[in-house]
Specification:
This protein has 10 helices and 7 strands. By secondary structure, the protein is of the alpha+beta class. A 5-stranded antiparallel sheet has the order 2-1-5-4-3, with helices on both faces. Strands 6-7 form a two-stranded antiparallel sheet. The N and C termini lie far apart (52 Å).
Length: 249
């Protein structure tokens, strides 16, 4: 049975904008932040990637960007598998499950994550993610029930709108520093041409450089599109980005 707070949220889904919805969902679920992302395919042969529809500012937004930069995490697993993925204590997650993510998540203040797929059967639409700064031993039953109800309601509205979800789920929230995914898609195509690799491999190169350089993926993509950064094959066979002036990084 859902809580009274979640019942209020479900009644407001069609009317509130993204920032209001994110705050209301976080309160109802008893977490520090909530994000909703939709699966979008950048091009032929590319795996669908979560693209933000709306999300809370702060650690929820930071966690979404971290997952997108690393290309791993509970949100991506939930979106692609169609099953809920919960990690109430990220510090207890096996190191090889989401390489690099637990330590970085703790660094930005995320101790637990709860991710629920948006979809129906084999249809994969996106993911609802909730994060908390407090680790737990298990998932609170009420939080799990409320999150499932919210994910089901979001899925129903997405399917009702026939491909026009933002209007159904509130106005997409503008988050300062938000990655412009269209720029990333363009940068991925440019790197694919520069290195003569697939779009999937090009995105991996961009992610690897962003992570190793501790630079937001959106900034790296912007530099590639602006031609301040170009990826080349080094003579030793190691792929590395070079700026026009020849400076690495």
């Amino acid at each position: 049975m859902i809580s009274d707070g979640m019942a209020d949220v479900l009644r407001s889904l069609r009317h509130d904008d993204g920032s209001v919805l994110a705050a209301a969902c976080a309160r109802a679920l008893g977490v520090d932040g909530v994000a909703v992302s939709l699966l979008v395919t950048a091009g032929q042969g590319a795996q669908p990637e979560p693209e933000p529809l709306w999300r809370s500012p702060g650690i929820a937004a930071d966690f979404e960007e971290l997952q997108f930069t690393l290309g791993v995490g509970p949100g991506l697993d939930a979106a692609h598998s169609g099953t809920a993925v919960v990690a109430p204590d990220l510090a207890a997650v096996r190191a090889d499950r989401w390489p690099g993510l637990p330590a970085e998540a703790l660094r930005i203040g995320v101790a637990g994550a709860y991710c629920f797929p948006l979809g129906l059967g084999a249809i994969r639409l996106g993911v609802l993610s909730a994060v908390t700064s407090r680790a737990g031993d298990s998932v609170p039953e009420q939080r799990f029930a409320d999150a499932l109800a919210l994910a089901a309601a979001l899925t129903a509205q997405l399917l009702e709108r026939d491909g026009n979800p933002p209007a159904a789920l509130g106005t997409a929230a503008t988050v300062p520093g938000e990655i412009h995914r269209a720029v990333l898609h363009q940068a991925t195509g440019m790197v694919s041409v520069q290195l003569d690799v697939s779009l999937a491999d090009a995105l991996l190169r961009l992610r690897a450089f962003a992570y190793s350089s501790n630079v937001p993926l959106g900034d790296v993509a912007g530099d590639v599109v602006a031609r301040r950064l170009r990826f080349n094959d080094d003579n030793d066979g190691t792929d590395g980005p070079l700026s026009p002036g020849g400076r690495k990084g």
